[in-house]
Amino acid sequence: MTTSTEHLPVEAEGDVRARIVHSALDLFAAKGYAATSLREIAEAARTTKPMIYYYFRSKEGLYLSTLGDRLQAFADAIDRATRPDDPPVGKLRAFADAYLRYFQSQEPHIAFVVREVFGLGADITAQFGCYLEDRVFSRLKVILQEGVQAGDFRECDIDACSVAVMGILNMFILRRVFGGAPLDRERAVAQVECYLEGLRRREPDADPFP
Predict the structure, then answer these.
(1) Where in the chain is the domain with CATH 1.10.357.10?
(2) Which in 61, 64, 91, 178 has the greatest CB count within 10 A?
């Protein structure tokens, strides 16, 4: 088997890999991880099993790659929604809205991840956690830190606050995935704004008995 991308057709460097990932996402979402075979993915992607092994080495490697791609797309959506010149309060609202919008735009694929990732073994779960930290949590922490530095937010535990904000958003997503509840994006963002009110820095009340 070829071991260097220098000897692959140009088309294989982009289109084939993209087709494999897209086909894997669709099949994993429709059938589940365990019930999906590499043969089915290869057929849907109009390629061969050796090409899947070339790029991803294994079914687990392919799955991890799809996770990384989805979370990177999450991060890209957040970056597009949060402009550098926006105040931290505006960035936090935009983060929450973009996070939920992206879920809604990719619901079948992300719902599959939510339903199955924690049952696929410690290695996959650990890698998922690393991807989530690096590509999503890190952006939220930067926004919160900017708010503290700008004086918009009071001094706080940045890590704990980021977990709290993500917890609010993810509970709305979990209710949708596991309970079929409608996901009202504005309602969910409003709950983040309630939390945001607690983070805002306020001047101490004037002493009534100076």
Answers:
(1) 67-199
(2) 91
- What are the start and end residues of each CATH 1.10.10.60 domain in the chain? 1-57
| CATH placement of domain 67-199 | 1.10.357.10
Q: Which two tokens stand for residue 82?
A: 């949060």
Query: How far is it, in rounded angstroms, from Cα 23 to Cα 2?
Result: 23
pTM of the model: 0.82
Q: For residues 13 and 59, give the distance between their C-alpha atoms in angstroms, rounded to a whole number.
A: 19
Cα R_g (the chain), whole angstroms: 21
Share of the chain above pLDDT 70, in %: 89
CA triple 20-22-26, angle to 5 deg? 115
Split at pLDDT 50, 70, 90, the class of 207 is: very low
Summarize pLDDT for 70-92 with one digit per residue, the tens.
889 889 999 999 998 999 999 99
Average of per-residue pLDDT across 199-204: 74
| Superfamily of domain 1-57, CATH level 4 | Homeodomain-like (1.10.10.60)
Looking from the CA of 175 toward its CB, the CA atoms found within 13 Å total 13
**CA–CA separation, 37 and 191 (whole Å):** 41
Note the pLDDT of residue 48: 96
